[in-house]
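Dear Dr. V.,

Thank you for agreeing to look over these. As mentioned in my earlier message, I'm a first-year student in the group and I'm still getting used to reading structure tokens, so any feedback on how I've presented them would be very welcome. I ran two proteins. I've put each sequence directly above its structure. The first is here:
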Amino acid sequence: MSNTVLLEASQLSRYFGGKTAVDNVSFSVNQGEVVGFLGPNGAGKSTTMRMLTGNLAPDHGEIRVNGIDLLDKPGQAKAHIGYLPETPPLYKELTVREFLRFCARLNQIDAKQQSNAVDTAMDRCGLTAVSQRLIGNLSKGFQQRVGIAQAIIHSPAVVILDEPTSGLDPIQIREIRQLIRDIADEHSVILSTHILPEVQMLCDRVQIISQGQLLFNDTIDNLSLQMQAHTLLVEFEQPLAADFLRQVDGVTSVETLHLQCHRLHYRPDKNPTQALLSRAVSDNWRLTSLIPEQRSLEDVFMKIIQKEETDV
């Protein structure tokens, strides 16, 4: 991943009437990076996406695409943006090739380069075999591919995808995810989605917005750290009193699930696994299972959102 910043948003705010939809949001996206953009309905996610694509002007703030100010030079800046809305903007009465040639002209690709741009986009999106078919006769998965092809046909610096796998079957979802990863090799990708596992599989960094404010902006690795529950699930061949487990160094409390199974809670800086194994061997506890527990991404997401609501 490069350190080259291809999109930078600074202190974006947008108001509708007396309501704040987006409140002082700032972030940047590097070349080769896939950034997941998450938020509950009404959080300001769609409003932010519309501002990033130049479809809605912010009331305050600045957006730079590949170093170009989107507000001062919208035409130049938008030339570096590829956008796939949640509902792909397709002319279903055209063939795939006809539509992409039309998109090439819209993006002002030089006439001599248009055929090559269309062929490249179709090749990258796995559309070559269906190039002469009407878009309206294609499956939803292939229509989504056409939508992505129109977003990348002009080789933009930043590709913004809004719910790109919505409504697809599991096979199509896997194929579109691989396509997005391939695209990220050459472009920056911002991925708006409500499918949390998709974020874990695709994204390098995660942003969570709620009530117009950016609550979380960090790498997927650091988000994974938040998923650590600091609990161990332990099971023994024979019943073991919880009092013995409370004596293990680092254990703060013990939750007995049944006589042979307990959940151990411990301090984040004091994992008791080694101490527990040593004690189990020395005292012949006949430990049969030890599982570090993790919170799901959904749990972490809800914790971040609910903390904001509690603070408000």
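The second protein is here, in the same arrangement:
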Amino acid sequence: MFGYRVPAPDEAMLISGGRYGLKGAPFRVVIGHGTYVAPMFRKVRYLTLAMQEAEVEETCVSRQGIPLKVRAVIAFKVGNDEESIVNAGQRFLSNQDQMSILTGRIFAGHLRSIIGSMTVEEIITERQKLAEEVLDGSKAEMGAIGLHVDALQIQSIDDMGAGYIAAMAAPHKAAIQRLAKIAQAQADQASAEAQQASVRKQAAFTRETSITQAEYKAEVDKAQAAAAQAGPLAQAEAQQSVIAAQADLAQRQAQLRQQQLVAEVVRPAEAEAEKVRIMALANAERTRIQAEAAASNNRVALDQMLINQLPQIVKEAAAGLAGANVTVLNGADGLGEIAAGLVSQGLTILDSVRNSVAQSPGHNGQQPAPAPAPALNRQPS
């Protein structure tokens, strides 16, 4: 907009050409906002409010008369209040670089004055005190020209080759060197002790390792010896077990062979002997029957026929017995009982035949009953 002006954030806008201003100031101050300025009737100028820097390098003399070259840096700016802006504007508006030059000169004078009242020792050891006294001494003068000091930093102090500062530092330097040597000696001693301890530990470790290896070798030798002794012993025990197993197997084989001999030789022989005895008993019985038949007149022919068949019946029964697996539980008595049973069965068959003949149609008019089948008392083996 034509005629409307706005200052920068770090600037103060000074408007002249009117009859207004603080305490008769020739211009009006505008900060932080814009305003309308009538063209041709008002004039606008700008004053910087930014931070500025001034360097001071001054030769001063201490209270002992020792010359010192002091370097310092001052950080300052125009004050933010309207009064400070008016004061600074009236002095530096046309040449604002002059603010740094004038500030350096003001601080150089106060620096010479304060250092002249202090000893070198105080200046060296109390730099903060020196800076505060210089600031306090220059505050009134800087405020009168509208400037505000933010900081003062003493950068260096030099005695320009006089050697006073070096001599002053010599005792401290010697003490520090002495302490450094003591510390170095202690460090060397600690290092030597640590090295000796390391050597002792290494020797102890080597000794323990040798002992451990010897003990390990002894244990290994002992184990190997035990193993060497245990080998033949274990082999002998194994052979003994094998022999015992073989003996047990031989005994079992003998028992099995004995059972086979009984089944294959003894039992057939006993059966054959029993057959012979039964045949003898049958022959004797035939002789007796023949005698009885000879004495009988009525049944001679029939008895003779039956008598002739009885040996065949007994033989058949004996043949069946010879082929059977007969178990004799009570020895010779058992065999006798079997033989007697066969003969008895033969006689029973004979009596049955006689009765059948007697009951035939020639005797009582009935058909003969069938003869009962012979029954042998056999038991499985």
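From my reading of the second output: The first strand starts at residue 4 and ends at 5. The mean pLDDT is 78. Does that match how you would interpret it?

Kind regards,
E.
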